[in-house]
Each structure stands twice: as C-alpha cells, then as structure tokens.
C-alpha cells in the first residue's frame, strides 16, 4: 500500500493506493466523527460490480449507507441529477456530518463532490475512485462540478475530500477504451511536469497496456504525487494549477461541441494537447521534434489525434468561454519543452486557428 499526502494547510488528506482496500475503508471511516447515516453514490456500471463490497465496509465501520445509482456516462454530470441526489439526501434526513461517498469514475466523483459541497453548505465527501482517470486525476485536488449545455464543468466548486482510496484491482473490470482515456491525463503529467516520467511512459507502453502491476502502481502513484504537489501550492487555481489544464482548452470545446458523447474526456485531452503543442511550436517555444514525440506517444497509447464532428468556428468560439479566459484573452497552457510549461500564455488568433485546423478532421 502506498500513501500520497495532499498537504494542504487546511483540509489536507491522504490518497491511499493499493489492492483490495475494504479494511482500509473501514479503518479510515473510523478515524472521522461522521454521523451514522451515509449516502453512497455510484453509476449503473460500477454499482453492479462494487456496491455490495463497499457497503459491507461502511456497515462494519458502524454507518448505515443508502445507495443512489446514476446512469453511467457524462450526461449524468448535470444539475438535474444533482437535484435528484439532494432530494434523496433530504428524504433520508442526512445531516451536516453525514458522509457522501463517490464510488466510480470522474463523472460520479465530480457530481457527488458537487452535491457534497452544496448540500447543507457542505458535508463530508469521500472519493472511492474506480476508473484509471479518476485514480490519477479527478479524485484528487477538489475540483467538483457539473456541466452546462453551454460549457463543461461550468457550475462547480473547490471542495476537498476527507480521503481518497484507489483500489487498483478495480482496473481489471475497466474497459480497455477507459484505460486509454486515463492514459491521456497521465501523458499530460509527463508533458507539463516531469520529462523522466514522460520517458518512462514512452519506454513502457507495452507493460502499461498489459496492466502490469508494477507499472500501474508507478504511473498512478507518480501522477497522484504530481497532482498533489501542484494542488498543494495553488489549491484554487490562482496561477500554477492552470498547468493541469494543458490540452483542456480545446478538449472542453471538443466535448461540448460533440454533446459530451463522442469523445471521452481523456481522448479529447489527447487531441487538445496536440493542438496546444502545435501552438507552442508555431510561437517558437517548442521544437518540432518535441511535438512529434508527444504525438507519437498519444498514438502509441491508442488515443485520437484529430477530432471529428467539430467545426473550426465552433471550436474557436468555445475557447472564449474557457474558465481561464479573462477579458476575452484566452490563457493557453503551452510547453517550452517536454516536462515544462512556458510562461507565455497568449497566442494570436491566426496561429490558434491554424493549429485548431491541424487537429480537426476534414
Ligand atoms: N475533478 C477533476 O479534477 C477532474 C479531472 C479529470 C477529469 N475530470 C472529469 O472526469 C470525468 C471523466 O471521468 P472518467 O473517465 O472516469 O469517466 P466515467 O466516470 O464516465 O467512467 C468511465 C466509464 O467507466 C465505467 N467504470 C468506471 N470504473 C469502472 C470499473 N472499475 N469497472 C468497470 N467500469 C468502470 C463507468 O461506469 C463509465 O462507463 C469527466 O467528466 C471529466 O471532466 C475531472
Ligand atoms: O485539477 C485541475 O486543476 C485540472 O485542471 C484537472 C483536469 O484534468 C480536469 O479535467 C479539470 O476538471 C478541468 O477543470 P476545469 O476547471 O478546466 O473545467
Ligand atoms: Zn482533465
């Protein structure tokens, strides 16, 4: 078992990474003074596989948990679904110390965290991350949100969990496409923060795809360390944390323009990273061979490099509503080498459009 600390001055917490964490869940619940009524939110895929086991640990810890199941998929990350969960919470009489557990991927985590942050102005929240993407990114750092039809994660908060459990044995049931989706965000960490990690990914693509335990532990652990390091320095994205948004300006546009259905988040991020790397090269910040290196790794890990079903105009317009855009100036996260983000964040419209064209399928 490995622990990574998110050492925030207030509301810090541990991420526990291991296999079969039932006893750990019971133990960590016992370390908090929660009310005895709890809610467990999960989705229609994960619920069938893991609810009973998790409920057993919660019960052993002396709590009674009701289960709320949302339909699997990004469309559940909505105010409508949140409203249904609030209703259930009120009906069950959940109080200010009632914990809400998120058992699932990033959709369940973001949605449940948003409900926990707002129900009675905040109740304890626990992340039990089951997808690779959730285990390396969404369960850590406290960004919680729902989507709006006009934009991704538009309604949300910063709200840290009490603890995060990452049971890597859950990945055995995760569809292959979702493994690659998680790898999109993992590549991001190497690209923005750690060239050695990027090289590890390049050198171990086969082991990673075969879900070899040692490489899984390494890539999940290192990703959590990098995210924890960034978030600890800048919890509410005043500056540094924006680097975690590398590739996301175009990614969110792709997700929104395709109705949150065609591309998984990590797939859209892969395309967006290539777009941002091309802007970096056009501005003379990044060598062409570095752009090729990033693109090659993305391709090797079966992620898309071009978006279908998105027009240049729509993509360009969408980026103006990005959360990092201020006074109409888009804040681009650009690279000056693999493993390092540039201080330059502005790019002329013609360069942006040229690079958008490169990642849009005809
Ligand atoms: N809060 C953050 O910091 C942050 C970071 C990155 C992404 N996100 C958000 O996370 C979401 C994407 O997360 P995701 O990729 O986990 O998607 P997801 O939650 O939809 O999970 C992907 C699919 O895998 C299934 N699944 C999950 N775990 C499983 C398991 N162990 N076995 C079998 N099936 C399993 C789910 O039911 C779903 O069908 C997006 O909404 C994205 O915006 C948030
Ligand atoms: O934690 C962060 O900060 C991130 O930006 C991580 C991203 O991978 C994640 O997709 C996040 O939800 C994006 O946030 P947003 O505020 O740009 O919607
Ligand atoms: Zn992301």
TrEMBL record:
Catalytic activity: 7-phospho-2-dehydro-3-deoxy-D-arabino-heptonate = 3-dehydroquinate + phosphate
Entry coiled-coil feature ranges: none
Record InterPro entries: Dehydroquinate_synthase, DHQ_synth_AroB, DHQ_synth_fam, DHQS/DOIS_N, DHQS_C
Biological process terms in GO annotation: amino acid biosynthetic process; aromatic amino acid family biosynthetic process; chorismate biosynthetic process
This protein's GO CC annotations: cytoplasm
The keyword ATP-binding belongs to this UniProt entry's keyword annotation: no
Cofactor: Co(2+); Zn(2+); NAD(+)
Cofactor note: Binds 1 divalent metal cation per subunit. Can use either Co(2+) or Zn(2+).
Residues binding NAD(+): 106-110, 130-131, 143, 152
Known pathway: Metabolic intermediate biosynthesis; chorismate biosynthesis; chorismate from D-erythrose 4-phosphate and phosphoenolpyruvate: step 2/7
Pfam families cross-referenced by the UniProt entry: DHQ_synthase, DHQS_C
Compartmental location: Cytoplasm
Record's keyword terms, sorted: Amino-acid biosynthesis, Aromatic amino acid biosynthesis, Cobalt, Cytoplasm, Lyase, Metal-binding, NAD, Nucleotide-binding, Zinc
EC class: lyase
Domain 3-dehydroquinate synthase C-terminal: 182-325
Principal location listed in the UniProt entry: cytoplasm
Enzyme Commission number, as recorded: 4.2.3.4
Domain 3-dehydroquinate synthase N-terminal: from-to ranges: 68-179
GO molecular function: 3-dehydroquinate synthase activity; metal ion binding; nucleotide binding
Reported function: Catalyzes the conversion of 3-deoxy-D-arabino-heptulosonate 7-phosphate (DAHP) to dehydroquinate (DHQ).
The protein's name: 3-dehydroquinate synthase
Annotated organism of origin: Schwartzia succinivorans DSM 10502
């Amino acid at each position: 078992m490995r622990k990574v600390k998110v050492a925030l001055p207030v509301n810090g917490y541990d991420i526990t990474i291991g296999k079969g964490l039932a006893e750990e869940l019971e133990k960590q619940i016992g370390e908090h003074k929660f009310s005895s009524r709890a809610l467990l939110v999960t989705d229609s895929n994960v619920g069938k596989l893991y609810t009973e086991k998790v409920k057993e640990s919660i019960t052993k810890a002396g709590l009674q948990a009701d289960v709320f199941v949302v339909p699997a998929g990004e469309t559940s990350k909505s105010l409508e679904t949140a409203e249904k969960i609030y209703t259930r919470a009120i009906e069950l009489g959940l109080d200010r110390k009632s914990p809400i557990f998120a058992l699932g991927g990033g959709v369940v985590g973001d949605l449940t965290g948003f409900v926990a942050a707002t129900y009675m102005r905040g109740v304890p929240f626990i992340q039990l991350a089951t997808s690779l993407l959730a285990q390396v990114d969404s369960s850590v750092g406290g960004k919680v949100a729902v989507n709006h039809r006009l934009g991704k994660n538009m309604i949300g908060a910063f709200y840290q969990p009490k603890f995060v459990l990452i049971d890597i044995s859950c990945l055995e049931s995760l569809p292959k496409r979702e493994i690659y989706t998680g790898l999109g965000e993992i590549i991001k960490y190497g690209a923005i923060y750690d060239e050695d990690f990027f090289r590890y990914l390049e050198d171990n693509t086969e082991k990673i795809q075969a879900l070899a335990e040692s490489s899984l532990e390494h890539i999940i652990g290192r990703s959590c360390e990098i995210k924890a390091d960034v978030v600890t320095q800048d919890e509410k994205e005043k500056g540094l944390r924006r680097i975690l948004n590398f590739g996301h300006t175009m990614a969110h546009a792709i997700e929104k323009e395709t109705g949150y259905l065609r591309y998984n988040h990590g797939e859209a991020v892969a395309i967006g990273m290539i777009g941002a790397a091309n802007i970096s090269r056009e501005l003379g910040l990044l060598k062409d061979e570095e752009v090729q290196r990033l693109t090659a790794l993305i391709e090797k890990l079966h992620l898309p490099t071009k978006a279908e079903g998105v027009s240049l105009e729509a993509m360009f317009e969408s980026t103006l509503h990005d959360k990092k855009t201020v006074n109409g100036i888009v804040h681009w996260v650009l690279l000056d080498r693999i493993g390092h983000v540039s201080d330059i964040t502005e790019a002329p419209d013609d360069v942006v459009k040229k690079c958008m064209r490169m990642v849009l399928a005809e």
